[in-house]
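Revision sheet: structure tokens.
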Amino acid sequence: MAKTNSKQITKPSWLKITDKELEAVIVKLAKQGLTSEKIGLELRDKYGIPSTKVSKKKIGQILKQNELYEDATLKNLEKKQASLRKHLEKNKQDKTSTRALTIITARIAKLKKYKKRKNAESD
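Predicted:
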């Protein structure tokens, strides 16, 4: 049995949104502060759009075109770091959280260094 290698998803007949409208919705959600992963969930749950592949562009590509793209991994790490700092202000003797904060800070620095090097290579 031959395996088909087509990843092109055709637009369902019940989906009435155009590509321009889809991009406008994605930009609106990004301006509300959602990451690309959360935007995908929001599109599925509230707008009934099964996948953005129906518009031939990924969410990240649309956000990069509109200069709204934020790396979700970095954003989540920074959020966790802020939460730990707030916790440590109240609980100064919490050694486990102090160590976790050190590890997360190192991961953030490592990720930023990687992104910087990757961007320099692509330019």
